[in-house]
Amino acid sequence: MKRIAIDMDEVIADFVPKHLSIFNDKFKDNITIENLKGKKLRELRPELKNEIINILTEPAFFRDLKVIKDSQEVIQELSEHYEIFITTAAMEFPTSFTEKYEWLKEHFSFLNDLNFVFCGDKSIINADFLIDDNARHFKRFNGQGILFTSPHNMNETEYVRVNNWKEVKEYFLK
Amino acid sequence: MKRIAIDMDEVIADFVPKHLSIFNDKFKDNITIENLKGKKLRELRPELKNEIINILTEPAFFRDLKVIKDSQEVIQELSEHYEIFITTAAMEFPTSFTEKYEWLKEHFSFLNDLNFVFCGDKSIINADFLIDDNARHFKRFNGQGILFTSPHNMNETEYVRVNNWKEVKEYFLK
């Protein structure tokens, strides 16, 4: 059985709208998702880089993120044909471990939690495919990287791209 | 640069003495490390299996474990010649994430925390070597498994064995 590793933030957990809304509230700004095309928030407001990262360390930031459309249904279907692992760069935000674990148990209860991986450098992941919004993780990954569209990666052209979970299903099950 | 993945409990963190001492106190028992040769505590007292596991979910159980002798010095030396990742089956004890992270930051501060991996099924680990006390993790591991001696694995004969960190150094640096 081939193995698919799947990232969390911006792939199954809808990270950007919450992050942006807290940022705009806090700094009386008006950045839209449109403005984020091709860049991350910290690149758009480099003078606030630390504050932007600090938002992610607020208690429970990751706990109530919305689930990305169709990800539950498609991953459930994929899990009948592939081994599924969730691989998230949680070491970048060590306060997020428990929140991320609880979020997965709530929204992806059909997955085995022994298949959850909290890591940093994803070159440690042994899988046939990695679905991720950060192309940097593909550089040293030994399987096929699949870029999940997110505003910041719009200009990336080097990798196979999927725009939503319907396209993921198409890629793996057609 | 070749990569070595290293387990935590019973390899760099001295898990058994603390676990045993809490168990003996709690259940007025007198089990010694000698008694554990060839088996785990839960196999020796199967009627208390749940209680034995519950000890590990007590707040901060993992936070103050002693460091296994010579592991810091040898890993520091190995890190000059190999890429080092710490790979621990933390998903079995989801309450342990923060404790394990803080323990690593305290005792192995020379390692990059992006090289810490909290997982369950270690077949997800992409490394050349895995030093672990649980031989079951080697079954689907695609590199060389190296069994670190712990009372419970004394009778395991299938894998390369190291008895202490001096032997690890010998194996990798001689």
From TrEMBL, chains A, B:
PANTHER family reported in the protein's UniProt record: 5'(3')-DEOXYRIBONUCLEOTIDASE
GO biological process: pyrimidine deoxyribonucleotide catabolic process
Sample GO molecular function, one term: 5'-nucleotidase activity
Leader sequence residues: none
Name of the protein in its database record: 5'(3')-deoxyribonucleotidase
Active site feature: D7 (nucleophile), D9 (proton donor)
Pfam families: NT5C (PF06941)
Top-level taxon in the UniProt lineage: Bacteria
Annotated family: Belongs to the 5'(3')-deoxyribonucleotidase family.
InterPro entries: 5'(3')-deoxyribonucleotidase, HAD-like_sf, HAD_sf
